[in-house]
Amino acid sequence: ENAAAGKPKIDKFITKFAKVYTPIVVILAVLTAIIPSLITGSWSFWITTAITFLVISCPCALVISVPLAFFSGIGAASKLGILFKGGISIEALKKVKAVIMDKTGTITKGNFAVQSINSADDMPENQLLQIAASCEANSTHPIAVSIIQAALQRNIKGQTPESLEEISGMGIKAELPQGTALCGNKALMDKYGIDTEKNIADGTTEIFVALDGKFKGSITISDTIKSDAEKAIQLIKSRGLVPVMLTGDAEGSARFVADKVGISQVYAHLMPEDKLNALKNIRNDIGPVMFVGDGINDAPVLAGADVGAAMGSGADAAIEAADVVFMNSSVEAIPQAMTIADNTGRIAIQNVVFALVIKILVILLGFVGFANIWAAVFADTGVAMLCILNSLRILWKKY
After folding, report:
1. How confident is the model at residue 202 (pLDDT cuts 50, 70, 90)?
2. Integer CA distances (angstroms), 372 to 55, 363, 364, 377, in order
3. I need a surface site. Which of 59, 152, 157, 221 has the fewest CB within 10 A?
4. Which residues are catalytic?
């Protein structure tokens, strides 16, 4: 239903064209049958000519072939686990000049694991992990899940917070039996004026923990880069597009991942509103943009992009806001979707040009007496069948 509602511009144009074209053709056919017949008296010849003209002019091939090309594109993509929500998404994808990606869950697997627990102020590691797990108990973010799993592996039970506040893009503030706890990134610590001892290893994310305004330590967490990420980025570059990374993670871990997969433009430590502003700036500098993300925080950016794509493993809010969903959460699905969009647009144009050229040619032959009713049938049904077969090439092609 969404696909049918989201008609591309070329489909809307053909629909409008047919609404004007069809009555004009019918009127011309009637005039062709009557006026020359009244003048020459050859009613049989001119009625046959008018019927031939009417059959030739029937816009079936145009009206059928264009939407069928887009539905074939949607079908070909769905076989690869790529779900377009409408033809308008395919059309917009052809115009994209930059591909902007989130890091966690898009370029990386989002399978975080705790690497080390770094206590400060003589606080035992297990107590530091307990505070962090208590703060993150109600969160479904992959980083929070990794902290909770690490606590369970050590048989550490979290405590139920008396109150809990999620600070967007920063972390959690919770009232625990031990006091007021903060668990989040460097920005959260800076917000509350807490000094930290920051020393992040390459490719890791660091979560800071504070209690009653004092820094208590940090937990380092690492993620895994998806196996197809580097190849996908190379394919994106080969199309002349600019890959960009926007992430809320620290500069060090973001740059490490970007260097590994071949992305030169990196914007790190961004809040959700910062991501949207960065996207607008990139669009002004480069042109139409595609954004690929998976988190709740990505929903505004997905909605604001020319084409928004969500990973199927991501949050429901991101999937709802996106124009395209990559159900297999593969980075390689990005260039695959672009190839399908290019083929779909090219075949839709081929169908329009082919149908119009054949129809005009047979109409001219009909008026000079060289096209009979069989030529008219070919110009109508035959051309429609050829356009349909041409559209089905999108489904048959390997991507």
Report:
1. low
2. 11, 10, 12, 9
3. 157
4. 102
